[in-house]
């Protein structure tokens, strides 16, 4: 069996990896480490000991990229102090800003999301006088045969990428340009990876894709053996009742009744759906090219709640998209109330060069209006999260223990099936155990509990 954990070996050259952006990027860093470990490298968490410094980057909003440019300047100091150190940029920003990164002279290697297999070669060929780049996007690459080296410390919960790329063209989004076309991974390799994690003590897998509901494996020999997302979920859930299954991200236009029924059927498929709505206004949804309406979205929510009354529901919201009126904004607020989200990721619209929105619609909501609307959305979500948590006071939940609470070393934390974080006194329990807890009180972020 392949080594799932970083190799500790002082004699090996060292790579330092910093990860930005989504869960998919976290998993990609694990793929990168696996490829480099096979090539003789070992991971270091100390940048001053690194022979190769990698930043696995994100382009989703301008502020994500600005942060990384700031880091690249700091990497330059490492290079000045220790000539010979190589700096590489991987991920979405590598794909989007390839030449600009090389022109900065602070970067020696640029590798896009489908080029990680070529990293050893790029590193071997690169020098400050001869920077190296591979940003070819692929129609096939899924890294299916690579066992990611897990960098997390808890050894309980792991990401598994089930597909790559995205075929939706949401008008605001850079991802289809940085991650290429959608491709699904062979389900047998997914089940094998999940089973291996379980054998190694992991108790939760999180199946990742930009749009998991459009997962579709085409069997090359027999179309009757094609696998869709509902079937994949079931295959993974059957590995063991003690292996929890989560997934992200669902798309409101694609989430099927079958997926909802499979979730309901298996206790170990966690009752939580991350269902980004983006806006509550039909006019904005149309311009965003989300391909659903407010009513369609709310209907999906009703379906989920009717089949799984206790299902956690979370979302993403963008404030201040092109042409957004005060009424459009109010429609978002009223949808949030109706859907009663348990939590949300909330952002101001950030124009991304090259996207449909950047080409077609002026970014015309003034920054102070964007900020004011975002603040209103955040304040409302705080109230909704608190109300949702208050409803859970007095309930009991089965929690998978993920670690020791940061605030109090005598307390543990873990998540309930609905994805809410519970904190409770350890009472002999340890990381990786399941605990049944009763909720005593709450904040807007945590359920304060005790083991029953
Ligand atoms: N500006 C602001 N937020 C964005 N997102 C995607 N693109 C943009 C953008 N250009 C948000 C969406 C998406 C989440 C991952 O990031 O809400 O669901
Ligand atoms: Fe960022 Fe999107 Fe790329 Fe993830 S896929 S790293 S969120 S731009």
Mean pLDDT: 97
Rg estimate, integer Å: 22 Å
Tell me the domain tally: 3
Bound molecules: 5'-deoxyadenosine, iron/sulfur cluster
Oligomer: single chain
Strand tally, please?
21
CATH superfamily of the largest domain: tm_1862 like domain
| Percent of residues in β-strands | 15-25%
Low-confidence runs (pLDDT<50, min 5 residues)? none
CATH topology of the largest domain: pyruvate-formate lyase- activating enzyme
Could you say which structural class the secondary elements and strand pairing correspond to?
Answer: alpha/beta
The CATH class name of the largest domain reads Alpha Beta
Q: Helix share of residues? A: 25-40%
Shape: globular
Question: Care to give the gist of this entry?
Answer:
The chain is an alpha/beta fold and 452 residues long.
Task: Explain what the structure shows.
The structure is a single chain. With 452 residues, the protein is of the alpha/beta class. It contains 14 helices and 21 strands. The chain has helices spanning 23-38, 62-81, 92-96, 98-103, 119-125, 175-179, 187-199, 229-237, 257-265, 282-288, 294-307, 326-339, 356-360, 367-392, and strands at residues 14-19, 42-43, 52-57, 86-91, 109-111, 132-134, 157-161, 163-164, 183-184, 204-208, 216-217, 227-228, 244-248, 272-274, 312-319, 343-348, 396-404, 411-416, 421-425, 434-442, 446-451. A six-stranded parallel sheet has the order 2-1-3-4-5-6, with helices on both faces. A five-stranded mixed beta barrel has the order 17-18-19-21-20. Strands 7-10-13 form a three-stranded parallel sheet, sandwiched between helices. Helix 1 (23-38) links the parallel strand 1 and strand 2. The two termini are 38 Å apart. The chain binds 5'-deoxyadenosine and iron/sulfur cluster.
């Amino acid at each position: 069996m392949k080594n799932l954990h970083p190799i500790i070996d002082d004699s090996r050259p060292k790579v330092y990896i910093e990860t930005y952006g989504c869960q998919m990027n976290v998993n990609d860093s694990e793929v990168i480490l696996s490829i480099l470990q096979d090539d003789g490298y070992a991971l270091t968490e100390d940048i001053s000991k690194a022979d190769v410094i990698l930043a696995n980057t994100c382009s989703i909003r301008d502020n994500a990229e600005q942060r990384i440019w700031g880091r690249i300047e700091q990497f330059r100091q490492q290079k000045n102090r220790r000539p010979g150190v190589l700096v590489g940029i991987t991920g979405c920003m590598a794909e989007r800003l390839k030449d600009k990164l090389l022109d900065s002279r602070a970067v020696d290697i640029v590798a896009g999301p489908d080029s990680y297999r070529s990293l050893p070669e790029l590193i071997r060929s690169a020098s400050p006088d001869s920077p190296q780049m591979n940003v070819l996007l692929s129609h096939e690459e899924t890294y299916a045969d690579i066992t990611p080296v897990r960098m997390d410390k808890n050894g309980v919960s792991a990401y598994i990428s089930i597909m790559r790329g995205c075929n939706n063209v949401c008008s605001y989004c850079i991802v289809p340009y940085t991650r290429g076309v959608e491709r699904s991974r062979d389900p047998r390799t997914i089940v094998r990876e999940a089973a291996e994690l379980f054998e190694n003590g992991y108790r939760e897998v999180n199946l990742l894709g930009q749009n998991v509901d459009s997962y579709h494996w085409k069997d090359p020999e027999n179309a009757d053996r094609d696998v869709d997302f509902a079937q994949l979920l079931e295959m993974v859930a059957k590995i063991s009742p003690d292996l929890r299954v989560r997934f992200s991200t669902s798309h409101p236009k694609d989430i099927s009744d079958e997926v909802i029924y499979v979730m309901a059927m298996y206790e170990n498929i966690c009752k939580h759906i991350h269902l980004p709505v983006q806006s509550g206004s039909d006019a904005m949804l149309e311009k965003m090219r989300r391909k659903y309406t407010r009513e369609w979205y709310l209907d999906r929510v009703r379906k989920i709640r009717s089949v799984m009354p206790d299902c956690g529901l979370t979302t993403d919201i963008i404030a201040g998209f092109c042409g957004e009126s005060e009424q459009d904004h109010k429609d978002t607020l009223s949808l949030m109330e109706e859907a009663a989200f348990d939590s949300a990721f909330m952002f101001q619209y950030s124009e991304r060069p090259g996207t449909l929105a950047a080409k077609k619609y002026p970014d015309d909501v003034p920054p102070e209006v964007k900020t004011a609307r975002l603040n209103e959305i955040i304040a409302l979500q705080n109230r909704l999260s608190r109300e949702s948590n208050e409803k859970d006071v007095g309930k009991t939940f089965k929690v998978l223990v993920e670690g020791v609470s940061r605030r109090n070393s005598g307390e543990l934390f873990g998540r309930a099936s609905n994805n809410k974080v519970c904190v409770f006194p350890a009472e002999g329990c340890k990381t990786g155990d399941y605990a049944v807890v009763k909720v005593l009180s709450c904040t807007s972020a945590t359920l304060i509990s005790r083991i029953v």
